[in-house]
From TrEMBL:
Compartments in which it is found: Cell membrane
Occurrences of domain ABC transporter (ranges): 7-234
Residues included from the entire protein: 6 to 240 of 301
Molecular function in Gene Ontology: ATP binding; ATP hydrolysis activity
Residue ranges of coiled coil: none
Presence of keyword Lipoprotein: no
GO biological process: response to antibiotic
Protein's UniProt keywords contain Electron transport: no
Name of this chain's protein: ABC transporter ATP-binding protein
């Protein structure tokens, strides 16, 4: 499973609702190659999180196909050691300390790393013995990120990694992303921030109302994007 795209979706659709009446993702085709940083960009409700959760194996497609490393991402046992995941809201805020949380997530992942190293990467060394439940919103996001990058996974999914972070924490997060990229990790993330996507992504996918309307490098998107897509950062 070393050849071929790391992540591939073909005619992927996902519907919500008792009768599947709400189409959150519509016939989406996607290929992400080894070492790429791919950013899904779009407004609230565009379907970015639903797409990511389906690629992660957390949702079963209504129709279409998803493969990760050539296999089914719902096959957790084979995928887990190779994939790090940062959810939009992990809800992880228990009685464990920050250091214990990272250590536990690390041991579940099956990858090797060092708690002190990872604490340093996300600038949480000073909070290492604080209970995770007592962290600020931005600190919780950094803890979630730390758990996703533990052991430098081959593939990392990040759902709005910088939302709620102050500028310095954002820079720190992108530095950490650059570090795992230089080690060869493939990264798929969602964001609302055009300026982050254009600065860091190899390719950007523009989602609107469940449809992946365009994708490409920034240059490809700027030359000839359809007029109904508004390339404006949301703030
Ligand atoms: P945001 O930027 O706000 O996180 P998003 O692009 O990640 O948005 P999704 O969270 O994937 O979008 O949501 C896509 C659509 O599916 C939205 O219209 C949302 O209301 C709907 N949706 C999401 N989760 C559910 C659910 N559990 N049940 C029903 N509809 C849902």
């Amino acid at each position: 499973s070393t050849a071929g795209p790391v992540v591939e979706a073909a005619a992927l659709s996902y519907n919500y609702g008792d009768r599947g009446e709400f189409q959150a993702v519509r016939s989406l085709d996607l290929r992400v190659e080894r070492g790429e940083l791919y950013a899904l960009l779009g407004t609230n409700g565009a379907g970015k999180t639903t797409t990511l959760e389906t690629l992660e194996g957390h949702r079963t497609p209504t129709s279409g196909k998803v493969s990760v490393f050539g296999g089914d991402p719902r096959d957790r046992a084979s995928i887990r050691p190779r994939v790090g995941i940062m959810l939009q809201d992990s809800g992880f805020a228990g009685d464990l300390t920050v250091a214990e949380s990272i250590g536990l997530a690390g041991s579940i992942s099956g990858r090797e790393d060092d708690v002190r190293r990872v604490l340093g990467v996300v600038d949480l060394t000073a909070k290492s013995s604080t209970r995770a439940g007592m962290l600020s919103g931005g600190e919780k996001r950094r803890l979630d990120f730390a758990m996703a990058i533990w052991g430098t996974p081959e593939l990392v999914f990040l759902d709005e990694p910088t939302t709620g972070l102050d500028p310095s924490a954002r820079d720190g997060l992108w530095d950490a992303v650059a570090e795992i990229r230089s080690a060869g990790s493939t990264i798929i993330l969602t964001t609302h921030y055009l300026e982050e996507a254009q600065k860091y992504a190899d390719r950007i996918g523009l989602m609107n109302k469940g449809v992946l309307e365009r994708e490409g490098t920034l240059e490809e998107l700027v030359t000839g994007h359809p007029s109904h897509i508004t390339l404006v950062a949301p703030h």
